[in-house]
Amino acid sequence: MLDRAVGLLRQLGEAGAGGQQLSRLADALGLSASTTHRLLAALEHHGWVERVDGGKRHRLGAALVALAGQAADGTGLRRICRPALARLSGESGETTFLIVRSGLNAVVVDRQEGDYVIESLTQGVGGLMPLGIGAGSVAILAGQPLAEIEAVLSANAGRYAQFGSSLEQVRHRLARVQADGALMLDDSLIAGLAAISLPIRPPGHAVTAAIAVNFIASRLDAEARQALLERMRREVAAVEASLAVPATLSRPPRGGEG
Amino acid sequence: MLDRAVGLLRQLGEAGAGGQQLSRLADALGLSASTTHRLLAALEHHGWVERVDGGKRHRLGAALVALAGQAADGTGLRRICRPALARLSGESGETTFLIVRSGLNAVVVDRQEGDYVIESLTQGVGGLMPLGIGAGSVAILAGQPLAEIEAVLSANAGRYAQFGSSLEQVRHRLARVQADGALMLDDSLIAGLAAISLPIRPPGHAVTAAIAVNFIASRLDAEARQALLERMRREVAAVEASLAVPATLSRPPRGGEG
DNA sequence: ATTCAATTTCCGCATTTTGGAATTGATGCG
DNA sequence: CGCATCAATTCCAAAATGCGGAAATTGAAT
Fold first, then answer.
1. Pick from B134, B139, B104, B137: which is nearest to B122 by CA?
2. How far, in Å, CA of B106 to CA of B129, rounded?
3. In this structure, are residues B137 and B210 in contact, taking their beta carbons and an 8 Å threshold?
4. Is the pLDDT of residue A36 over 90?
5. Three-state SS at B42
6. Residue A35 is inside which H or E element, if any?
7. pLDDT digits (tens, 9 = 90+) for B206-251
8. How far is CA A257 from each of CA A163, B120, B187, rounded to the nearest angstrom?
9. In what order do the strands lie in the sheet with B49-51?
10. Fewer CB within 10 Å, N side or C side of chain A?
11. How far does the CA of A14 sit from the C1' of D26, in Å?
12. Considering only CA atoms, which residue is closest to the C1' of nucleotide D20?
């Protein structure tokens, strides 16, 4: 029941803005129409699913956005890292990302725009990719225990091809992170797009997140990239330091509106 | 079962960054410990719940962020409105919001920072408030059919006090939106914080969303506010026009990483 | 007007969930 | 150092709930 609901929501996520009709969902999940109907009704009741134009197509509902807003804050990391991301974006003019692990995937939890818009080329908040694909994703994976890395690699191996990487390439990049504590990538997923990423390692814990900067490769030469990397190292060091002191885990001030 | 899972996730959302232990959750929801345990395990398996530091406290997981990223794009509105929000924030220097309805609540679906940071005063993406509270929220409610408005008002009446508004005040603001097609608010929720909001009405449909600009009241005089409002009217008109042509409902390009 | 596909409702059966009780584990106290 | 306490986890038989086939309804297309 719950698993079916999760599958249904995933499927709806794939469907995108236009939504999807009941019968297609039932087919895709191998469920009977009546079961699918009942599930959709229940989810709709909670606002997790809504009808497109009140018609017969279904899509993900706004209640999920609300829940996820709390989830993203929930790690606490987002609030802590946001000023760092803002500084990096502000000073470099490039787009900055905060990425965390979710099972076999990496998820973009926060993102700050730079002056240079690469909107359509990159993942938005909530964007998902296999662990091992994408600069930040690699940085996170590289910081896991060895057995964990192997488990993830073997589970994800089949997914790498569609992102234009081989298992060997992924392994090579992991090694670079482990050697340098950071990763610089060119033509990362998109030709001409470059990225620099750093793992975030809370003192006494394994790596839980990474920050990354994406930019058009031609915009920064080797020297500028090195400078940016050093800048990022300082920001990450500051973040890690502030994680050492558990700080206030209390809720943020319930503020104004939008 | 599903309802209990939803309740559990809501409860975890309330808990915030520090997470919550099983027994408290069970108490809060009136469930037995074994049921709660089973639910948490199932949700954890899907990445919707995770353990804090691998310990015994639970919080919302990153998989929800991923799902919600799709949900937020899912309305299609976010992609369409983002350039408008960016222009408004860029030109005015203030913070801009895109808000949609979710049941009895309004949810912040997108947000663009201005030069002037009011981060801690305002809702982030995913922020939730009762329909009728907050400038954008009022604008949405005012555009619903009359019977709908009354239903929402009576359902939400009890929640207004905690936001410092009375039912009469809400009704008054609704009337202003209906008269002017927009709303200017002072001391909206926070003393010294002002807001301007406009409903977004897709041609041939009821109002489905609103945009709002929040700013420190002292930063803009009456004349500047009027100018900003006119600017917003133009942006909303353009958005509504682009909604008339269903445009491409296809998925966005699967781009690079974060 | 008729047909066909898709959605929605109904209902008896059986699979699943349920919560009390027992077990294990962790933490603090005497 | 061992005992007591509280929370988390596992187990199990009873039963409630979800399941899907079939029937009814909608509504769009011919």
1. B134
2. 5
3. yes
4. yes
5. helix
6. helix A33-45
7. 888 999 999 988 888 899 999 999 999 999 999 888 877 554 444 4
8. 39, 11, 11
9. B20-21, B57-60, B49-51
10. N
11. 28
12. A32
- Span A147-192, pLDDT tens digits: 889 999 999 999 999 888 899 999 999 999 999 999 999 876 777 8
The reported pLDDT for the residue numbered A193 is: 87
**Residue burial B155-167, b: 16+ Cβ < 10 Å; e: rest:** ebeebbeebebee
Strands of the sheet containing A49-51, edge to edge, are A20-21, A57-60, A49-51
Residue B172 pLDDT:
95
Q: What is the pLDDT of residue A253?
A: 42
Distances (CA, A) of B211 to A251, B96, B251, B258: 26, 7, 24, 27
pLDDT of residue B115: 75
Lowest mean pLDDT among A47-51, A169-173, A208-212, B126-130: B126-130
Contact between chains at B257 and A195 (C-beta distance less than 8 A): yes
Going along chain A from its start, the domains and CATH numbers come out as: 2-66 (1.10.10.10), 75-244 (3.30.450.40)
Q: Which of B234, B156, B255 is nearest to A134 (CA)?
A: B255
CB contact under 8 Å between B125 and A123, yes or no, is no
Measured CA to CA, the distance from residue B170 to residue B106 in angstroms comes to: 14
DSSP three-state, residue B30: coil
Q: Which nucleotide, over all strands, has the C1' atom closest to the CA of A34?
A: D20
